[in-house]
Specification:
This protein has about 425 residues and is of the alpha/beta class. The protein has 15 helices and 19 strands. A six-stranded parallel beta sheet has the order 5-6-4-1-7-8, sandwiched between helices. α1 packs across α2, α5 packs across α6 and α9 packs across α10.
């Protein structure tokens, strides 16, 4: 990575503004999965070892952006971080920015840690997203002002900026992009944290210098979400294995009967072209686990029915890949030297339909154990790997589902591009 990291700068005695991704699941005021907090620790410790003051900031969930909401408070994240660091972590005021926060930061001593309240309590944080809804794709002067005021209110607190929030690196949010520029304008460094550096290292290696055979495993609900990725990967990989609900639209394009399975009908013609272009590089399921009813919202489904054939009867819908597909996919994965996996093979949150995803996770772990490089693209695949306790058996489990997808597609990542060059 040609960008400076915190290893390249001295922040002794400075106030460091560090954007982290503490968007963690919370139940009853407690963090239920602290992986994202744990992965930020190397950067946090590096800054504290230099005797700097550390002001952390993150978003958490999707509040209404109209002020404080208790259920989206960053307090559980601050509490968990304090436990992990074994030292106090102050929580910023509920209004997020302003005089009260400025006073708290002024009172900090070197080595102190403060976590600002949820950035998304303020409209300024995600304001750049509103541009695409405007006719000219630009912010109105009023919107721009709200954004700029929010950036300025944070920028005045410190002299250095660190981005360690890979999960949001595909978004030009105030704390991700505008704040980096504001600190640079003040003459301060804007650098990557160790987690962002690590994420890019593994994603870049997989894309630019993969060891062959290179296999991509793609799943999830919608093929429309992954078209760009499939096209990007086709020239680089040896095989693309496709499971999950997105496979049914591709099977339909091949003339296979898919019953009541999820279908993106408007994508079928496009998929015919894609399959013709791909030749035998794309592998699709040859058998299925199906059921007669599924309510995605209620997470309820009928009994599993094994379908030993590629065609699904008209009264049933596919829910997972079948045993023959599991064997075929696992054999390809086992022989791979580079594996990128993004998306589950079925409705893995229901135990009856989790076998495909679990089998792929086990096959990827085994291939990694045999010297392969495995990159798990965040989101549901990461959740499945964690659930099975296999995260330490993978080369790299990404913290950013959407961000890793955008990076693999070759999309620009403005929050990374804006950081200081080495």
């Amino acid at each position: 990575m040609a960008k400076k990291t915190i290893a390249d700068v001295n922040v002794a005695g400075k106030t460091v503004l560090m954007r982290v991704d503490f968007n963690v699941p919370i139940k009853g005021g407690k963090v239920t999965n602290d992986r994202r907090i744990v992965q930020a620790l190397p950067s946090i410790k590096r800054i504290l070892d230099q005797n700097a003051k550390l002001v952390l900031m993150s978003h958490l969930g999707r509040p209404a952006e109209k002020g404080f909401e208790a259920e989206f408070s960053a307090k559980p994240a601050a509490d968990r971080l304090a436990e992990l660091l074994n030292k106090p972590v102050q929580l910023g005021p509920p209004e997020v920015v302003g005089a009260a926060l400025e006073q708290m930061v002024a009172n900090m001593k070197p080595g102190d840690v403060l976590l600002m309240e949820n950035l998304r309590f303020c409209a300024g944080e995600t304001m750049p997203d509103k541009a695409k809804k405007n006719p000219d794709k630009k912010l109105t002067p009023e919107q721009q002002q709200i954004h700029d005021d929010f950036v300025a209110a944070i920028a005045k607190l410190g002299e250095a900026y660190v981005n360690d929030a890979f999960g949001t690196c595909h978004r030009k949010h105030a704390s991700m992009y505008g704040l980096a520029k504001a600190i640079q304008k003040k003459g301060g460094p804007a650098v990557a944290g160790f987690l962002v550096e690590k994420e890019i290292k593994y994603l870049e290696e997989a894309l630019k210098t993969p060891k062959a055979p290179f296999v991509a495993v793609l799943g999830g609900a919608k093929v429309s979400d992954k078209i760009k990725l499939i096209s990007k990967l086709l020239s680089k990989v040896d095989r693309i294995l496709i499971g999950g609900a997105m496979a049914y639209t591709l099977l339909k394009a091949k003339g296979v009967q898919i019953g009541k399975s999820l279908l993106e009908a408007e994508q079928v013609e496009e998929m015919k072209k894609l399959l013709a272009e791909a030749g035998d590089k794309i592998m699709l399921p040859c058998d299925h686990v199906a059921t007669d009813s599924f309510d995605a919202k209620a997470k309820m489904a009928g009994e599993p029915i094994a379908i030993a054939d590629i065609n699904i009867p008209e009264n049933l819908l596919g829910m997972d890949i079948g045993q023959k597909t599991i064997k075929a996919f696992s054999d390809v994965v086992a022989a791979a030297k580079t594996i990128v996996w993004n998306g589950p093979m079925g409705v893995f949150e229901l135990p009856a339909y989790a076998a495909g995803t679990k089998a792929i996770a086990a096959a990827v772990a085994k291939a990694t154990d045999g010297g392969g490089i495995s990159v798990i693209g965040g989101g549901d695949s990461a959740a499945a790997v964690e659930e099975m306790g296999l995260e330490n058996k993978m080369t790299h489990v990404s913290t950013g589902g959407g961000a890793s997808l955008k990076y693999l597609e070759g999309n620009p990542m403005p929050p990374i591009e804006v950081l200081d060059e080495k």
